[in-house]
């Protein structure tokens, strides 16, 4: 069985296979990212598209590598990195989400006193990655079964890292699986860590900080370090697609 054209269609002659991301309230999303280091895009993908993407998992031709998390101490469960060219829908989503996030990332760097600024088009940022030897695509499809979990981690794959990433839940909690919450932790200097659980439904996306982000304190801005993971799946099967904006070495 091959995947439906709606997912695989390549961006061509102005036809965009991805969902319309301009319809979200990007002012509110930026405010949530500033306050909490995460924000959700409710109903980013319809259920049918979620099923179509999850159905790619066994089709090896779409992927460059296959990771069994337990073998690396990453948790339990598995994932596959897509190869280039990405399925059209993911290529479009990566390209269309990036400019909104680049504005947030540039403000964050300004607040943190970091000189680096990100170009406002994804293709320009990818060129920087490729020039730095980070040429392998990082979007990935994850699959979890009962008892699986994803340890707290950061998706860093070289010196160049875009500070925000996106994960889209492809399965429906309560129906397709139970447990398996998306979790973020925030390590604060000289303080105890803060945990955040992000409730998601099928088709919802979470945008979150990959690593450092600025927090406004009473004595100026300080930096916190974020990590993300997934709590234990209690029953059923859970699929996610991850959109990371930097490429890997
Ligand atoms: O399965 C999830 O919700 C998290 C996946 C993940 O770690 C990622 O997309 O980077
Ligand atoms: Fe991750």
UniProtKB/TrEMBL annotation:
<keyword id="KW-0560">Oxidoreductase</keyword>
<feature type="domain" description="Fe2OG dioxygenase">
    <location>
        <begin position="135"/>
        <end position="248"/>
    </location>
</feature>
<dbReference type="InterPro" id="IPR005123">
    <property type="entry name" value="Oxoglu/Fe-dep_dioxygenase_dom"/>
</dbReference>
<protein>
    <recommendedName>
        <fullName>Fe2OG dioxygenase domain-containing protein</fullName>
    </recommendedName>
</protein>
<dbReference type="InterPro" id="IPR018655">
    <property type="entry name" value="DUF2086"/>
</dbReference>
<keyword id="KW-0479">Metal-binding</keyword>
<keyword id="KW-0408">Iron</keyword>
<comment type="similarity">
    <text>Belongs to the iron/ascorbate-dependent oxidoreductase family.</text>
</comment>
<dbReference type="GO" id="GO:0016491">
    <property type="term" value="F:oxidoreductase activity"/>
</dbReference>
<dbReference type="GO" id="GO:0046872">
    <property type="term" value="F:metal ion binding"/>
</dbReference>
<dbReference type="Pfam" id="PF09859">
    <property type="entry name" value="Oxygenase-NA"/>
</dbReference>
């Amino acid at each position: 069985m091959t995947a439906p054209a709606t997912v695989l269609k390549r961006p061509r002659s102005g036809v965009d296979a991805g969902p319309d991301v301009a319809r979200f309230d990007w002012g509110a999303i930026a405010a949530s990212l500033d306050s909490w280091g995460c924000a959700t895009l409710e109903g980013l993908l319809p259920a049918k598209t979620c099923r179509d993407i999850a159905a790619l998992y066994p089709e090896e031709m779409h992927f460059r590598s296959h990771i069994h998390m337990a073998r690396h101490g990453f948790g339990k469960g598995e994932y596959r990195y897509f190869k280039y060219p990405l399925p059209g829908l993911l290529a479009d989503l990566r390209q269309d989400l990036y400019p909104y996030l680049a504005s947030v990332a540039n403000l964050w760097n300004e607040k943190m006193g970091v000189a680096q600024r990100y170009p406002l088009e994804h293709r320009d940022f990818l060129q920087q990655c490729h020039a730095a030897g980070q040429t392998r695509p990082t979007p990935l499809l994850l699959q979890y079964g009962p008892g699986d979990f994803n340890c707290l981690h950061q998706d860093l794959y070289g010196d160049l890292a875009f500070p925000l990433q996106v994960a889209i839940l492809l399965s429906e909690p309560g129906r397709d699986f139970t447990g398996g919450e998306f979790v973020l932790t925030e390590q604060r200097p000289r303080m105890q860590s803060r945990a955040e659980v992000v409730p998601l439904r099928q088709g919802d996306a979470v945008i979150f900080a990959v690593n450092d982000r600025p927090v406004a304190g009473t004595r100026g801005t300080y930096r916190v370090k974020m990590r993300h993971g997934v709590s234990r799946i209690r029953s059923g099967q859970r699929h996610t697609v991850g959109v990371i904006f930097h490429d890997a070495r």
